[in-house]
Amino acid sequence: MxxxxxxxxxxxxxxADEGRKFGATALMFSNRFFDPVAGSRLYNEYIEHYRxxxxxxxxxxxxxxxxxxxxxxxxxxxxxxxxLAATTKRVKIVLLGNPLPLSDNPVRLAEELAMIDxxxxxxxVSGFVRGGGQEQLATGVNPAFNRERFEEAxxxxxxxxxxxxxxxxxxTHYQHRVVNPWAVPLQKPHPRVWIPGVLSKETIIWAARKxxxxxxxxxxxxxxxxxxxxxxxxxTETGYAGGPEYRGYLQRCHVADTDERAMENARQFxxxxxxxxxxxxxxxxxPSGYFSPSYRSAFVEFAVGRRPNPRGAAFEDxxxxxxxxxxxxxxxxxxxxxxxxxxxxxxxxxWGSDGFVKNEDTRRCIKLLGxxxxxxxxxxxxxxxxxxxxxxxAPVSHAxxxxxxxxxxx
Amino acid sequence: MSADRVMETLSIAGVxxxxxxxxxxPPVLVLHHDIGxxxxxxxxxxxxxxFTVLAPSHPGYDGSERPEWLRxxxxxxxxxxxxxxxxxxxxxSVVGLGFGGWIAAEMAxxxxxxxxxxxxxxxxxxxxxxxxxxxxxxxxYLDYARRGxxxxxxFDDLFGADPPTxxxxxxxxxxxxxxxxxxxxYMYNPTLPHLLGGLSTPSLIVWxxxxxxxxxxxxxxxxxxxxxxxxxxxxxAGHFVDMEKPQELAHLVTGFLNET
Lengths: 410, 260
Known about the structure:
The complex is a heterodimer. Chain A has helices at 16-22, 36-56, 77-87, 106-119, 133-139, 146-162, 201-210, 221-238, 259-266, 269-278, 282-285, 296-303, 315-320, 329-343, 359-384, and strands at 2-6, 60-63, 92-99, 124-129, 167-170, 175-179, 187-188, 195-197, 214-217, 247-255, 324-327, 347-351, 405-406. By secondary structure, chain A is α/β, with parallel strands linked by helices. Chain A has a domain at 2-73 and 195-406: TIM Barrel.
């Protein structure tokens, strides 16, 4: 298995009443409410949490990226990836992921990622995403071309990584006269690419066609099973067998010394959901051209307040469905077993806390996860045959059927 | 009195273009707003009692096919110049409404000899220096459409207080096309004022006093850029002057087009 630690890096020190007054806390909620003193403190706490996660035995640190919102302070995942590249020794640095369409320069991204791969001595997993609806507005890029930009940027980055320069790129959305970055990845043929997502069929199909592992982000178990059905079907059509080494899952999981304490802290997972998917202005999170045409009617109704967010669910429902798991190690382990048995992922991200959970409780959660939960999960993984892409020596992609190894290694 | 309208689909520059034609008299091309055009419009009907009103749906809007290759309003202007050539009606007057006004202005810069007279109503296309053009990316379909009227009742009369999902979907499809071709710079062409300079096409610029989408300042800039232009302001009207004050606008336009 590959077991990762994740946090959204919540900007928990902002005036929540101002957010409620404004009516949304994404995109347009003024950054005059961002206190850099608290921001500085929080960033440094998160760095300590990542160090602790490595110390207690996590295999990887998962990083993401969002803009203009208190729910996530990671405005640039490559920045934190660089920090981890230099300050950690063993863990994989798993970016889930760089929002490709937000960049007007994919070559620059390829360059930065190559640097991170080299500095980390080959520990980068370079995931890519489309970026949320409001990220398009926050960065000024056109949501109507989101998918096209994603696919073209991906193609250009893989080419920059795997083909010697200089070469020219005259694309639809990106034009470069000289692609020749003097930074190439250490891992060959290139760093592994994992694709996180929720329910978008197009993204699942795209990942399966590329033979990139797909990381389901906290979807309900039934929905998750459908994701793997679709992925496996496309895998078969593409010419390989799907299975655990292509499956990842992000699990909200807070562990504490008592079930009561854990439940109390787990409620903080709703802090972000209210802001991100509920309190977030529905218009900004779903700009025209961004969502799948098959969801158009649901999203237009959501955009004018006629329907609740197609993505939301109440706390109690999420506990029942295990989208949120909370308790002592003894309580959470059986629930994780159910996740592994029913959906068979080899990659699991543990999202420990969110919102206003106290620093010491987050640290305690990381420790309990590392010392008691992860060993049990590894045992279950062995028993169930859930070998990670690393353990299985899985190919990097359909196009490059070798596993990713550092340059010079046979 | 509603004029009888004939609908047809023409292939122009490889695009299946939906065109409505009504009335008799000198031809007038009416170019619709970014939100699209409701199927019956009293402004069109009033014009149709004096003119042959040609009302196409822009490529990618309402009933017209969306060409994947089309990238900006100037491309639409080219398509419409081709349409005029295909219709072979001699010179045609063009009335551009809002976003359609930007397209009309671009048409005039390309082949001024094809356009007899030009009317721009609340037209996008020129950057305001003091204010901002309201950004539909930040507003819901309902809020944006409502913002285009001075009086809320005018919106309700036309679209209903609670427009159906099918209307929202069409607004979304139209908005998606608008993003494809006018994302940034948003709703203006920095070169347009320069290209309009020296154009001698007689032009009428009409603005709603309460236009909360495109500032009145843009109307003033249009009037300054065009050599033979005058500005008329309609009281009690917002951005969608044709939908809110159809009779007043028809009267202004008819009078202007009939001038010699």
